[in-house]
């Protein structure tokens, strides 16, 4: 699910390859590639490549959208060239980004784009941009080297409008929903002795050599009105953590406002991104669509101002995720969580969650499992060649060494489940709860250590202040990629990050500098790296492929209407877990497996609980969060463990005749040393929980921000450790526990050390909200 490209050149031959063509408008012969979407890119270099090349990007366009090229194949850290039509002419820009956000203008006096007029135009069907990229062959992390032979070029395009399109450096871009990919290009094939003649057609310009800070959005009217409604609790973010905490707080009878920056998601909540074969279910409702969301007609659910993949829609990550629901094992809490958060402390919170939202290893309501060849094949391999035994991952969460299971999914009634389905209707049923969509929380308004309210921005950009009732609290639940921004904007975090906000392009009213609170916000970011291993498997000869899900048969449409069939299943077919013990400690692994074509099967191997790599999340001058240090595979002990685990699986496969590594030359070391991983999208740790305010944590064991009286964080940001499986289940358990802590704190259930006394169980009844309401599944929340 990684946007705009994948792992570094696994095998050059695996990419679509370029071929030669001569452009009629300029007469230049390019080595290029045309995708099935119509996106086309070509390149020409001198006989002895040095620093410059000629590029040509042709993008199908109705006058909107953009096309982009990455000179390394990667989106992050690469030199990007983006071009877009604006009122009939072409605007282009060099860009670079440290995260999966709209890339910022790249400024370097020795690198420039110089258009070739005859190949640069907008017509009724396309945009064509032909240019000399001067100084662009850098041979470092930005771009390929002049002596390279096989290049990997990444491309992306969108049909959606560019914001601020007249500004080369100030325009911003949405997610590349119209397509993206990589292709291979042999540099020697692009060499031509006519290069100098062609390059002389370029108009030299120094468009990118300006040294001024460019802001992508010009400040509009940022005067805020004041809402005349006030609340006991204001919660920022309606992802799983925010919804669960809001619903539990609403049960106490206090007034609760849940603010979500995104729009409605499931059909029941008012979402209308319906699939084209059923007009009453959205792409989020259909379990099988979870593997194809990035290709769906509507991709507005992804955040565009954060360092990496996150859902900005009602339900957050639970609407864009792949539905894996791995109940945490005891160790996930016992190794690193503080006092009051060990498994023995949180298990009753887990029970409250599972009562409403249990997860299942059998989602099709007819009790059948569909498309099982991958399961059967891998069951044979893992039981016979690896000695693993079968468990049910929902029933046996603590069995995490040498086991396999049918995949556990967050599904109910043949649909995607999660708190939008299992908690939100309960909250909507009580009058003291209010959900406001399309409302982004900017900052907590502080009177020194007390929060008095929040400043929000609507989707039209209008600002508003919403105040708390006396004694009320603000609870942050924007997710690991977003909650840090709210804190930075509130004067809480490392001084350099708050200074970036102060000097940045977004108009933010910060507290006076002597009220800034220096806490390690952003510092302990963790994620699961994923290694994709592919195997040949002759026993797989009748597997369902992507079109079976994106253009389903009538039989499967009819089965789905009954909550059954392959469309009621998520994309995974087989899971395994195991551990590795060495002098470097214990590390766990998860395998998530499926087959996407006959004759082959894929294992996505995750390094999970016990990994030691961490990264750092910061904020840029446009207010987007970014990775200042990547969180993956930056310790030698993590690398050694992954190499060992891959080699163990490969060796077992080679000795079996059941599955065979499809590339015989691959080893654990070749994969790990090529950094061939994708991210897990399981980010945690940007505001971790801790027992003392000693500079290593951001919130206390009641989830309250150190130094603040009434500001809390309850989402994945507070997790001081990564679990053994995907994160949503543990995020929900932790949210249930955080709600209990916050309620107990408010009702004075504290012991002398200020933490909640054990035995405080604020939610007497697990299934029924305290005030009115019912928990019928058909309780739509419009
Ligand atoms: C592509 C993808 C695939 C994944 N696959 C799986 C999987 O298969 N299984 C699994 O267990 N986990 C998976 N995860 C991870 C899981 O979804 C997350 O761990 C979980 O959703 C985190 O919950 P959260 O409440 O901390 O934050 P989020 O889910 O990120 O929710 C935060 C919410 O707050 C909103 N928000 C953010 N900032 C603001 C603001 N300033 N004001 C108002 N609202 C705001 C967002 O729009 C969002 O709705 C996946 C994640 C992604 C991105
Ligand atoms: C552009 O094309 C026109 C028409 O074909 C031609 O006359 C002109 O010389 C070309 N310009 C350049 C710089 O090649
Ligand atoms: C527009 O330009 C593109 C690229 O040169 C070309 O393929 C296409 O045919 C042109 N369309 C029209 C209507 O001329
Ligand atoms: C571009 O900038 C460089 C260095 O500042 C300068 O030498 C060159 O003449 C400029 N080119 C144009 C066309 O202005
Ligand atoms: C360019 O920016 C750098 C860093 O902000 C600054 O130190 C330098 O003085 C600037 N140069 C010019 C010519 O403005
Ligand atoms: C700015 O916005 C505020 C609040 O929406 C409004 O009261 C004010 O009139 C606006 N000012 C201008 C100059 O538009
Ligand atoms: C509060 O604001 C709403 C609209 O925002 C308005 O309809 C209502 O009359 C206001 N109430 C008071 C008491 O001002
Ligand atoms: C702000 O709060 C802190 C901690 O409570 C306190 O030490 C400090 O004096 C306060 N500052 C002001 C200006 O009130
Ligand atoms: C397809 O594979 C199955 C085993 O998965 C095997 O029993 C069956 O004979 C195969 N069918 C064909 C046509 O090869
Ligand atoms: C669409 O799916 C729903 C299940 O959510 C089902 O009730 C309905 O009958 C389906 N409609 C069609 C036309 O299949
Ligand atoms: C690693 O050690 C843990 C106990 O710390 C144990 O549960 C697990 O089975 C061990 N793993 C292996 C593969 O032996
Ligand atoms: C432990 O980690 C070190 C790197 O820190 C590595 O060189 C060594 O091979 C690892 N040992 C084992 C048994 O994996
Ligand atoms: C796996 O299958 C592919 C496609 O059929 C083939 O090219 C490749 O050589 C096979 N690999 C092995 C190790 O047999």
TrEMBL record:
Residues 311-334, 479-493 form the Glucose-methanol-choline oxidoreductase N-terminal domain. Residues 1-16 form the signal peptide. Pfam families: CDH-cyt, GMC_oxred_C, GMC_oxred_N. It comes from the Eukaryota. Residues 773-782 have a biased composition (Acidic residues). GO terms for molecular function: flavin adenine dinucleotide binding; oxidoreductase activity, acting on CH-OH group of donors. CDD domains: CDH_like_cytochrome. Keywords: FAD, Flavoprotein, Signal. Residues 761-782 are annotated as: Disordered. Transmembrane segments: none annotated. InterPro entries: Cellobiose_DH-like_cyt, FAD/NAD-bd_sf, GMC_Oxidoreductase_CD, GMC_OxRdtase_N, GMC_OxRtase_C. Belongs to the GMC oxidoreductase family. This is FAD/NAD(P)-binding domain-containing protein. It comes from Mollisia scopiformis.
């Amino acid at each position: 699910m990684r946007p705009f490209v994948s792992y570094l050149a696994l095998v050059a031959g695996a990419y679509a390859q370029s071929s030669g063509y001569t452009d009629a408008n300029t007469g230049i012969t390019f080595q290029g590639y045309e995708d099935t979407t119509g996106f086309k890119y070509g390149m020409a270099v001198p006989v002895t490549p040095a620093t410059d090349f000629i590029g040509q990007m042709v993008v199908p366009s109705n006058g909107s959208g953009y096309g982009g090229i990455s000179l390394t194949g990667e989106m992050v850290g690469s030199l990007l060239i983006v071009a877009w039509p604006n009122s009939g002419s072409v605007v282009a820009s060099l860009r670079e980004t440290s995260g999966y956000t709209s890339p910022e203008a790249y400024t370097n006096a020795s690198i420039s784009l110089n258009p070739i007029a005859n190949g640069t135009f907008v017509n009724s069907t396309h945009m064509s941009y032909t240019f000399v990229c001067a100084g662009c062959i850098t041979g470092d992390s930005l771009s390929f080297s002049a002596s390279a032979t096989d290049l990997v070029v990444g491309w992306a395009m969108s049909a959606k409008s560019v914001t601020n399109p007249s500004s080369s450096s100030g325009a911003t871009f949405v997610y590349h929903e119209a397509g993206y990919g990589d292709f291979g290009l042999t540099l020697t094939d692009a060499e031509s002795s006519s290069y100098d003649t062609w390059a002389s057609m370029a108009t030299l310009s120094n468009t990118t050599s300006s040294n001024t800070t460019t802001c992508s959005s010009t400040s509009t009217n940022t005067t805020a009105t004041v809402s005349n409604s006030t609340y006991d609790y204001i919660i920022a973010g309606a992802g799983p953590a925010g919804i669960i905490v809001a619903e539990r707080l609403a049960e106490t009878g206090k007034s609760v406002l849940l603010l979500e920056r995104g729009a409605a998601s499931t059909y029941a909540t008012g979402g209308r991104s319906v699939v084209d074969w059923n007009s009453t279910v959205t792409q989020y409702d259909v379990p099988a669509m979870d593997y194809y969301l990035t290709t769906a007609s509507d991709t507005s659910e992804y955040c565009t101002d954060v360092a990496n993949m996150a859902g900005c829609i009602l339900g957050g990550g639970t609407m864009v995720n792949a539905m894996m629901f791995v109940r945490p094992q005891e160790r996930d809490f016992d190794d690193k969580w503080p006092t009051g958060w060990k498994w023995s402390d949180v298990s009753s919170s887990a029970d409250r969650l599972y009562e409403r939202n249990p997860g299942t290893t059998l989602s099709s309501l007819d009790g059948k499992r569909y498309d099982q060849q991958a399961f059967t094949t891998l069951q044979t391999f893992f039981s016979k060649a690896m000695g693993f035994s079968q468990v049910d991952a929902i029933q046996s969460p603590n069995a995490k060494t040498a086991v396999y299971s049918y995949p556990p999914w967050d599904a109910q009634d043949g649909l995607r489940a999660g708190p939008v389905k299992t908690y939100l209707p309960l909250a909507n049923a009580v009058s003291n709860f209010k959900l406001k969509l399309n409302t982004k929380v900017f900052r907590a308004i502080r009177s020194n250590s007390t929060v008095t309210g929040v400043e929000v921005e609507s989707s039209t950009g209008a600002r508003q202040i919403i105040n708390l009732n006396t004694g009320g609290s603000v609870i942050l639940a924007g997710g690991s990629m977003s909650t840090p921004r709210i804190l930075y904007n509130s004067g809480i975090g490392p001084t350099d990050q708050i200074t970036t906000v102060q000097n940045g392009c977004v108009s933010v009213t910060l507290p006076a500098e002597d009220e800034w609170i220096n806490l390690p916000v952003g510092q302990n970011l963790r994620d699961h790296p994923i290694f994709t291993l592919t195997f040949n498997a002759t026993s797989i000869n009748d597997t369902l492929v992507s079109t079976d899900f994106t253009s389903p048969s009538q039989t499967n449409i009819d089965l789905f209407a009954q909550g059954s069939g392959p469309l009621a299943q998520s994309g995974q077919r087989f899971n395994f877990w195991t551990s590795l013990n060495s002098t470097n400690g214990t590390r766990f692994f998860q395998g998530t497996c499926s087959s996407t074509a006959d004759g082959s099967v894929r294992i996505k191997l995750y390094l999970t609980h016990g990994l030691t790599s961490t990264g750092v999340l910061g904020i840029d001058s446009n207010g987007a969060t970014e990775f200042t240090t990547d969180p993956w595979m930056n310790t030698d002990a993590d690398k050694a463990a992954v190499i060992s685990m891959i080699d163990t699986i490969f060796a077992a496969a080679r000795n079996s005749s059941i599955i065979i590594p499809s590339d015989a030359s691959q080893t654990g070391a070749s994969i790990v040393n090529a950094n061939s991983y994708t991210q897990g999208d399981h980010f945690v740790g940007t505001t971790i929980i801790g027992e003392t305010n000693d500079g290593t944590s951001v919130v206390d064991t009641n989830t309250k921000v150190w130094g603040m009286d009434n500001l809390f964080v309850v989402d994945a940001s507070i997790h001081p450790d990564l679990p053994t499986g995907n994160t949503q289940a543990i995020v929900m358990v932790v949210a249930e526990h955080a709600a209990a802590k916050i309620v107990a704190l408010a009702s004075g259930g504290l012991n002398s050390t200020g933490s909640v006394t054990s035995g405080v169980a604020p939610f007497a009844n697990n299934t029924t909200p305290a005030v009115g309401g019912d928990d019928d599944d058909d309780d739509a929340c419009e």
